[in-house]
Amino acid sequence: MAATERLYLDSIQSGYYTDFNAHVEAVEGDVITLDRTLFYPLGGGQNWDTGTLEGPNGIIEVHEVRGRSTILHKVDANHTLSVGDEVRGSINWERRHAHMRMHTAQHLVSGVVYELFDGVRTVGNQIHHDRSRIDFTPVSFTQDMLDEVTHQVNSLIDAKHEVTDSTMTRQQVNGRMPPERTNMDLLPASVTELRVVQIGEDLDLCPCAGTHVQNLSEIGHIAIIGKKSKGKGTQRVTYELQIPNVTPQPFHELV
Ligand SMILES: [Zn+2]
């Protein structure tokens, strides 16, 4: 099946759009494929967007979004969409923005832990709207260490650094960050160019296809609420975010 045009990936700013037009390309039971979409599918640790699709016969809910190249939207089972229909998609902004804040916070926490504790690596992450978790190795966090991470991350957030994206070659990324920090050493050799998300001038650089905030001030402060051993020197850290004072409005224009 044809690859879906991923409208959320054009730039950091694309993450702020909520509404788009598209055509139905395929229907299989309650799973709809579109030619283009703003819905983020589960991937890179980040959970999917929810929202609605408005077709010729009304509005249906999008419950689950999966897929890498072809993106599959799981909708209400009683939908009446058919191939060729024009739809207007609308994503749930509160959930999307929470994922953007959580995901950018994850990059910050991973970078700070790597720098503070001699190259401790991030080996997994799960980004949800209400709480997120990161797996680190090799490490055994004390409360003092977690307090130091929290303090450093919140100081960076208070400094209101910008977040930008660009396309770089492998060599460019590796020239600016250790491959163990960006996990570039785990990337298949076939990947030569990647989308990278950058915080500040050189605070963090990470290959990533997730959605992110444009400025760290949108994150609000983080609070680490738990740690758990996952065995073999790996620890899972769970965090929540406080709601910042100013929350941006989404761009409501159609994409
Ligand atoms: Zn990421």
Task: Annotate the secondary structure layout.
Layout: E1 5-6, E2 17-28, E3 31-34, E4 36-37, E5 51-55, E6 58-66, E7 72-75, E8 86-91, H1 93-116, E9 121-126, E10 132-137, H2 143-158, E11 163-169, H3 170-176, H4 179-182, E12 193-199, E13 204-207, E14 222-231, E15 234-241, E16 251-254
Parallel strand pairs: 1-4, 2-16
Antiparallel strand pairs: 2-3, 2-8, 3-7, 5-6, 5-8, 6-7, 9-10, 10-15, 11-12, 12-13, 14-15
Helix pairs in contact: 1-2
The structure holds zinc ion (ZN).
The site of zinc ion has 6 residues, from helix 1.
How would you describe this protein?
This protein is an alpha+beta fold and 255 residues long. It has 2 domains: 5-91, Elongation Factor Tu (Ef-tu), domain 3, CATH 2.40.30; 96-241, Threonyl-tRNA Synthetase, Chain A, domain 2 (2-Layer Sandwich). It contains 4 helices and 16 strands. It has helices at 93-116, 143-158, 170-176, 179-182; strands spanning 5-6, 17-28, 31-34, 36-37, 51-55, 58-66, 72-75, 86-91, 121-126, 132-137, 163-169, 193-199, 204-207, 222-231, 234-241, 251-254. The strands form 4 sheets. A 6-stranded antiparallel β-barrel has the order 2-3-7-6-5-8. It has a 4-stranded antiparallel sheet with strand order 9-10-15-14, covered by helices on one side. It is globular. It binds zinc ion. Zinc ion binds at residues 44, 103, 107, 206, 208, 210.
